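One record is set out below.
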Amino acid sequence: MKSFARPFAALAACVLLSAAPALCSAEIVEGQAPIIDGNVDQARYAARQDAMRTYVEGKVGVHVQSSTEVDMGMVVSDRILTNSNGYVQLKRIVDEKQAGGIYIVHLDLDADTHLMETAVADVQSRLEALEANSSRSGVSVAVGGVDENGRFESVPKINNYVRGMMEDKGFYAVTNDGVLQYMATHRDLDDPNALVEIRQLARQYREAENSLLRGTLSTQSITRQGGSYVAVVHASFELIGLDNNDSNSFANYFTASASSPVGAKQKAQEMAVREAVNSLGQKALKTDQRENRGGVHHIKTMLAFTNLGDPAGRAKQILAALSNLGIHVIRSGLTSNGGFQAFIDATQYQDTGALQEAITQSLGCTSMMDEGASIGSSKMQFTF
């Protein structure tokens, strides 16, 4: 997994360079937002927030050359904007107006460079602490886009942003290329079979992650309104537990405007990601707590055994082997087709791969493809 400690060190240095008064003097910044369902007050607020975000991202990104640093710098901007009363000062509203279905404001803004520097250092220290603690749980990230013509598009900037947001919440995060490749070639990701395959791939390609954060940003439309463009993006995200039955989802539409179609689309995508990750991030913390109660990693899964020969005798052998491996059997029984299943809780194994290897070595059986019945489910198949 790629370390972001070095990019943030560079980013911190850039903000330090911006301490000169000339770089943080007051500036006139434009912000805009679409008026949705006639709600002018909401559009006015969103336009002001847009101006502040543009201003802050510009200050944080001074002299930053690496695209990864810029994307991770968006996390710093998020942190600053949640405390904008201290970091950014609104000196005056230069003007504000409605232009068709768009609300446009021009704000005279100033910033406290020292506080920005502190925010960068804080995020940097968080990531450095994660790098030093390899035992922390991780989140596998796979976010893809679908353009207005229904074609898949890669959104590396968004994946970097999501990883940064999750790491700022205390998780390791790594892009899952296997899931992204699958998403690029499969359109119906809501199909049950596709969901099972996505989960299988996440487990196959993971490093030490406990969950997968999969998302699709589908551009519904980009239209021109006067001198601006309005983009509508649908976000569909899932947080999938890889070693338990947890599965949480988020879906919503997001609308943004900008002076260019690319800018409007990017704003809508970033809005969607911020809301989705803030929603599912809290659930990821709960998933982590359930998997690591009292500092112990719990893997709860169904074990299914076939081709038993002597079902009753083999069942006893399996239960004895699981006990010797320190695996707690919650419930078990023979199936109607002559197989044996056991729902277990294992606490001595880092991941399902290690658990699977221990079972096959102990029983002399062979592992088969995971055939979980639904997203978030967990089932391991073995045959004699």
